[in-house]
C-alpha cells in the first residue's frame, strides 16, 4: 500500500499547492485599489496593431468600431496586419481609413505578423505606445483616455481587461467566467502581491521602444503572450494590470473551438514552463522573484480539469483508507472552490447557475479533448475563427 500512497501523495501536493496559491491570489485581488491618476495626461502617439489571419468575418466590424474610438485622437493610428485576407476586405479596410500591412508566411504566427509590422515603413513615426488587439476586439470608448493615463504614470507594459462580447450560449458563458477568473487571479491578484500581471495576448499597451526591442527576440508558434511575459520579467520589466482599459472580446462559440484553443494554450504553457524554470530558478538567487513566479505560474493545472483531478484523488484516498491524503484532496477542492466564489461576482453566474451545471460535463469533455490538440499545436498555429458580435 505504501507505493500507492506515494503515487497519490505527489498529485495531492501538486493540487494542494496550486489550490492554495489560487486562494491567496483571490484574497489579494479583493484588496485592489486604483492608483491615483495624474493631473496632466499628455497625448501619446500610439499605434494600434491588429494581426488578422483569415479574419474576414470580423475584421470589418471591429475596425470600423475601433476607428470610431480613436477618431478624435489624431495622434492614434490603427493598422491591420493582413494575412490571407480577401482583396475586397483589404479594399474596404483602406476606404475606412485603416492602414493595411500585407504579409504572407509559409507558417503564419502572431509573432511573425507583429515583427513584419514593426519592420514596415508605417512604424517609422516616433510612436510612444504600441497597442495590440485581436481581430475581434473592440475597444471601449474610454480606451484611449485610460491607456494614456496609465502610460503617464510610468508603466511600460500594461494589460487591459477583456470583457465578453457574447454570453448567449452555455459554452460562451463558461468561457467568459474562466476569463474573468483568470484576470482577477493572475492579473489583479498578482499585482496586489507586487508581482507582474499575466498577459492575455491582446488589450496590451506597451512602450513603443520596448516593443521594438523585445518582439524580434520572440519565436513562439503559439502562446506568444507567455514568451513575451517571460522575456519581460526576466529583464525586470513589471507588467501592470489596468482593468479600466477595456476591450470587448469574443468568447468561443463551440466546444470544438474551446478544445482547439485550450490545446494550443496548454501546449505553449507547459513548453515555456520547461524552457524557463531552470533560468528562472537561477534568477531567484539574484533577486528576480517576478521571473521565478511567472515561470512557476506556467506549472498550474488546466482550470477545467483541476477539480476532476482533485475529486479523483479524494475518492482514491478514501478507497485506500488514508485520512491524510483524503484531507489534502478535500482542502484542495475547498480552496479551489472558495477562490472562484471570491473572484466571480454573483451577478455573472447567479441567474445562470442551472445552465452552468448542465453545461459543465460537456466542458470537461472538451477539456480532455484539448489534451489531444496539444501535440498538433506544437508545430503549427491553430487558428480560432471568429464571428462579428456587436458589443
Automatic annotation (TrEMBL):
Q: Does the keyword Transmembrane apply?
A: yes
Q: What InterPro entries does this protein map onto? A: Nucleotide-diphossugar_trans
Which superkingdom does the taxonomy of this entry point to?
Bacteria
For this protein, the record's SUPFAM superfamilies field holds: Nucleotide-diphospho-sugar transferases (SSF53448)
Which Gene3D superfamilies does the record associate with it?
Spore Coat Polysaccharide Biosynthesis Protein SpsA, Chain A
Keyword set, alphabetical order:
Membrane, Transmembrane, Transmembrane helix
Membrane-spanning residues:
6-28, 318-343, 355-374
User: Does the keyword section mention Membrane?
Assistant: yes
Q: Which residues form the signal peptide?
A: none
Specify the protein name: Glycosyltransferase
Amino acid at each position: 500500500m505504501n507505493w500507492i500512497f506515494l503515487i497519490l501523495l505527489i498529485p495531492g501536493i501538486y493540487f494542494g499547492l496550486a489550490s492554495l496559491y489560487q486562494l491567496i491570489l483571490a484574497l489579494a485581488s479583493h484588496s485592489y485599489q486604483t492608483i491615483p491618476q495624474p493631473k496632466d495626461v499628455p497625448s501619446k502617439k500610439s499605434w494600434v496593431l491588429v494581426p488578422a489571419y483569415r479574419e474576414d468575418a470580423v475584421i470589418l466590424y471591429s475596425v470600423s468600431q475601433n476607428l470610431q474610438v480613436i477618431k478624435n485622437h489624431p495622434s492614434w493610428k490603427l493598422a491591420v496586419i493582413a494575412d490571407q485576407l480577401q482583396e475586397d476586405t483589404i479594399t474596404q479596410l483602406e476606404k475606412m481609413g485603416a492602414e493595411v500591412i500585407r504579409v504572407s508566411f509559409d507558417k503564419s504566427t502572431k509573432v511573425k505578423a507583429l515583427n513584419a509590422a514593426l519592420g514596415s515603413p508605417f512604424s517609422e513615426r516616433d510612436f510612444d505606445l504600441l497597442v495590440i488587439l485581436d481581430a475581434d476586439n473592440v475597444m471601449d470608448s474610454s480606451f484611449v483616455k485610460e491607456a494614456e493615463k496609465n502610460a503617464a504614470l510610468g508603466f511600460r507594459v500594461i494589460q487591459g481587461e477583456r470583457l465578453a462580447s457574447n454570453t448567449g450560449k452555455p459554452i460562451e458563458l463558461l468561457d467568459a467566467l474562466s476569463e474573468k477568473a483568470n484576470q482577477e487571479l493572475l492579473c489583479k491578484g498578482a499585482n496586489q502581491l507586487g508581482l507582474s500581471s499575466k498577459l492575455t495576448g491582446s488589450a496590451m499597451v506597451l512602450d513603443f521602444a520596448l516593443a521594438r526591442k523585445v518582439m524580434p527576440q520572440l519565436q513562439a508558434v503559439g502562446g506568444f503572450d507567455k514568451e513575451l511575459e517571460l522575456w519581460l520579467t526576466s529583464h525586470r520589466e513589471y507588467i501592470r494590470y489596468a482593468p479600466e482599459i477595456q476591450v470587448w472580446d469574443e468568447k468561443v462559440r463551440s466546444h470544438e473551438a474551446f478544445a482547439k484553443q485550450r490545446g494550443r494554450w496548454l501546449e505553449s504553457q507547459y513548453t515555456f514552463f520547461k524552457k524557463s524554470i531552470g533560468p528562472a530558478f537561477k534568477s531567484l538567487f539574484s533577486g528576480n522573484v517576478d521571473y521565478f513566479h511567472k515561470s512557476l505560474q506556467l506549472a498550474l493545472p488546466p482550470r477545467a480539469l483541476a477539480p476532476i483531478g482533485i475529486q479523483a484523488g479524494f475518492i482514491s484516498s478514501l478507497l485506500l483508507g488514508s485520512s491524510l491524503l483524503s484531507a489534502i484532496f478535500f482542502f484542495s477542492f475547498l480552496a479551489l472552490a472558495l477562490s472562484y466564489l471570491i473572484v466571480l461576482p454573483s451577478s455573472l453566474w447567479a441567474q445562470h447557475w442551472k445552465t452552468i451545471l448542465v453545461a459543465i460535463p460537456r466542458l470537461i469533455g472538451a477539456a480532455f479533448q484539448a489534451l489531444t490538440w496539444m501535440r498538433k499545436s506544437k508545430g503549427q498555429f491553430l487558428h480560432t475563427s471568429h464571428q462579428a458580435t456587436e458589443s
